[in-house]
From TrEMBL:
It holds the Pfam family HupF_HypC. It comes from uncultured Pleomorphomonas sp. SUPFAM superfamilies: HupF/HypC-like. One of its GO terms (molecular function) is iron ion binding. Gene3D superfamilies: 2.30.30.140. This is Hydrogenase expression/formation protein HupF. InterPro entries: Hydrogenase_HupF/HypC (IPR001109). The gene is hupF. One of its GO terms (biological process) is protein maturation.
Amino acid sequence: MCLGLPMTVIDGDDFSALCERHGERRRVSTLLVGRQAAGARLLVHLDSAVRVLDADEAQAIDRALDGLAAASEGRAFEHLFADLIDREPELPEHLRTKQPCPR
């Protein structure tokens, strides 16, 4: 399984950026997202930035990844999913309407 990681741009040029996540720095390709300013948050798959993230989305992904790590290590993780506790799950809009099955 391949996971995208939110990383913060430290410095970059037209083709790549030096990015950081939890103290680890790596150079990633920015060919899909263009040049990004220092401080920008990027979703990175296999050393390629695939999307620019806003701060809220980057934080939600970080919490989810931290929660998965905590759960796999047997540590408490519920606090990392506080926005999901005590609410009913919601389907995305495209799944709420019935659509005919293609034959």
